Amino acid sequence: MKVVKFGGSSLASGKQVEKVFQIVVSDPKRKIVVVSAPGKRSPEDEKVTDLLIECARLCLQNKNPQEKLNTVIERYAAIAQELNLSEEIINDILQDLQTRLTADKRNPDKFMDLVKASGEDNNAKLVAAFFRQQGVEAHYVNPKEAGLFVSDEPGNAQVLPESYDKLFSLRERSGIIIFPGFFGYSKEGEVFTFSRSGSDITGSILANGLKAELYENFTDVDAVYSVNPFIINSPKEIKELTYREMRELSYAGFTVLHDEALVPAFRAGIPVHIKNTNNPNAPGTKIVYERDNTNGPVIGIASDKGFCSIYVSKYLMNREIGFGRRLLAILESYGLSYEHTPSGIDDISIILRENQFTPGMEEEIVDRIKTELDSDEVVIEHSLALIMVVGEGMRHNIGTTARASKALAKANVNIEMINQGSSEVSMMFGVKEIDEKRAVQALYEEFFAAVAV
Amino acid sequence: MKVVKFGGSSLASGKQVEKVFQIVVSDPKRKIVVVSAPGKRSPEDEKVTDLLIECARLCLQNKNPQEKLNTVIERYAAIAQELNLSEEIINDILQDLQTRLTADKRNPDKFMDLVKASGEDNNAKLVAAFFRQQGVEAHYVNPKEAGLFVSDEPGNAQVLPESYDKLFSLRERSGIIIFPGFFGYSKEGEVFTFSRSGSDITGSILANGLKAELYENFTDVDAVYSVNPFIINSPKEIKELTYREMRELSYAGFTVLHDEALVPAFRAGIPVHIKNTNNPNAPGTKIVYERDNTNGPVIGIASDKGFCSIYVSKYLMNREIGFGRRLLAILESYGLSYEHTPSGIDDISIILRENQFTPGMEEEIVDRIKTELDSDEVVIEHSLALIMVVGEGMRHNIGTTARASKALAKANVNIEMINQGSSEVSMMFGVKEIDEKRAVQALYEEFFAAVAV
């Protein structure tokens, strides 16, 4: 039995929903179908979820949401019309939305979640109706009825452990189950959504709860690329990678799958298969527990800009027990999260995303580190990029570091920082932002260009 | 004006004291002479300081210290005899020691400091007597009289800032000043010693207080070596290095000079010259603020065994603000100091010296990290060696990392860890202990073998 999830672009139009139907019925093991809200039909289009957020916001500001509401209804209507569905389904959706928009607004965050969740919920009903029209037994199942319970954190709900056992009984239902992604219910019966792109999470939770053999995640790319296609033209596709590799690559928002979404599948050891709705015969990318390390030590390269480094030096620092802990406590008091802390004998640097600073915060932090920790020198360096070189094969591969650093030297890139040694499947280089592209190209050339696909 | 300090082996016998005399009088700028207690004459010999510690310990245990006391007196007597000094000086020393051994023992640590400090104190008197016998104006100066005041921390005294101004007036005294190293006086007039090898600290404090042009530190080696001579046969000597390089090299207890000792000279910008009492014409090693970066990017390689790594992994760790701080707080609660904390996206390793663990502590720490931080995995890896590659020239030298890691790969050494990016003058590699020697040899070969001396 397989859990299959379709993203917003896979359900953006009637034509796309037809593809989804063909994909589902082509494999009788595809029993559970998790759907997102309709996404963009073209780069200029709006996602239904964004329109719903706008509706909710207008209501909260006591403004008239009618225009936005019409746009939402028109999206569903366009799909229904393309699929020759009866008007009834659109009336149901309109009624549902009107009810939601008149709900209690005393807690704005909860109200927002209730409205946002309708995008998936109504789309699941629509998709189920289309499957039935095609003569296939298909049922919309509501998360409350199925037992998908979550914590009461608006926009960031966490699945409650007891859900998994309850969801298992979905196996006994007949026909194909069409399940809305993105939200669950609190114990009090209220709607709470996962973080954005949370339909991936719903699919992963269902795969875990139902003990599926596979979690198929259909999106609009053929595969996970080995490197950002904006940096390298048509880079190599990754056929298979481990959960750990996927997680390390996600460092820079690089992957097609929501980070948290891997957790439930990972804990249950269920492989995740990323495939393309628009090209279902492409092999896609499979995320697994273990894999053969053929084709070289490196599987992918991720990179991102926008980091800075807070350099702190103090003579005899390494004799001072508690220095590092007190330094981190200062950052924590500003709610800052950091990435790495490379250190010398008398100095330490904290690498963090620079967009976390609010005006004046930088100066205040420098000042506090100087005075409270009696530091000799505190300097902030901006505009750094981090590059992650990822692969299970590097674990005990002597010479990978040498190859990587030699490639960077040849490309005339100065390595500002190296972090290697904790994760066995990645190696991190810090470079100046202006060197990022050249650095990634050099590393790709070194580890991929010569490798057979 | 120069401050000159002589170590224990430079004063271990009459013949050595004669060398010291020749060195001092050969340069009229050598006005302040700081002396250690007599050291070892041969590898099997005992240092006077060790004998004194044993004396004090016996007294504290209400045992008879006479035998050890005799050995101490015999050491001074042998030197005095070799130098044809009168018996008077030995009687003075005996009387001084007997007075100290009958002092108040209610605070054993203070009593220990009082006895230990006699090694330097009495040796300064003896050396001054010899200088005078040679017809040179020389005066023993007591630290209390000179104004060298310290905190009341037995065995770990810290100089009080007001001392520097007081010491400046020593410049006005006539003749050569023979000053005992290793100790000062509290504001209450009691003796407190610096940490072990603290005569280096005394010399550095005097150099700062007197605004000396140079602090000469005479010991028994020709120079600081670029690498441990037990690993490489007759390694290249370092002619000049910066304070920062010296400090990074001292990482592994590699240097000939006490770590803390550099601080006062460093703060006053006074160069430190390490020279050999037994070969005073050798150029020695000069520690300076800045130097020319000729002869390649690397100036030295230090290494040490006996480290371990505590590996902690937790899925989505990098989203958890405060994780690192709480992890370090656990280690701090055991008084453990750590060296580095390389990190991946979902994992962090803490590198520390494994001799800090007491029985049972390891298991307890692993358990606390697992439960208190809800970690997925906690593993301690033992028997690691750290290798520091040091040089101001690496700061912006593209390719140094590539050369180092390539050399290690060629020597078939797996790099367990790299820490580079905070200190601009060093790069650290972690390897398995069994690979340490091969790794250092490979790095030496790469950075030194081809470089002209």
TrEMBL record, chains A, B:
Belongs to the aspartokinase family. The keyword Protein biosynthesis does not apply. It is an enzyme of class 2 (transferase). Pfam families: AA_kinase (PF00696), ACT_9 (PF22468). Catalyzes the phosphorylation of the beta-carboxyl group of aspartic acid with ATP to yield 4-phospho-L-aspartate, which is involved in the branched biosynthetic pathway leading to the biosynthesis of amino acids threonine, isoleucine and methionine. The keyword Nuclease does not apply. GO terms for biological process: diaminopimelate biosynthetic process; homoserine biosynthetic process; lysine biosynthetic process via diaminopimelate; threonine biosynthetic process. One of its GO terms (cellular component) is cytosol. It comes from Cytobacillus dafuensis. Keywords: Amino-acid biosynthesis, ATP-binding, Diaminopimelate biosynthesis, Kinase, Lysine biosynthesis, Nucleotide-binding, Transferase. Pathway: Amino-acid biosynthesis; L-methionine biosynthesis via de novo pathway; L-homoserine from L-aspartate: step 1/3; Amino-acid biosynthesis; L-threonine biosynthesis; L-threonine from L-aspartate: step 1/5; Amino-acid biosynthesis; L-lysine biosynthesis via DAP pathway; (S)-tetrahydrodipicolinate from L-aspartate: step 1/4. Substrate binds at residues 49, 120. GO terms for molecular function: aspartate kinase activity; ATP binding. It catalyses: L-aspartate + ATP = 4-phospho-L-aspartate + ADP. ATP binds at residues 5-8, 219-220, 225. This is Aspartokinase. Its EC number is 2.7.2.4. Gene3D superfamilies: Acetylglutamate kinase-like (3.40.1160.10), Aspartokinase, catalytic domain (1.20.120.1320), VC0802-like (3.30.2130.10).
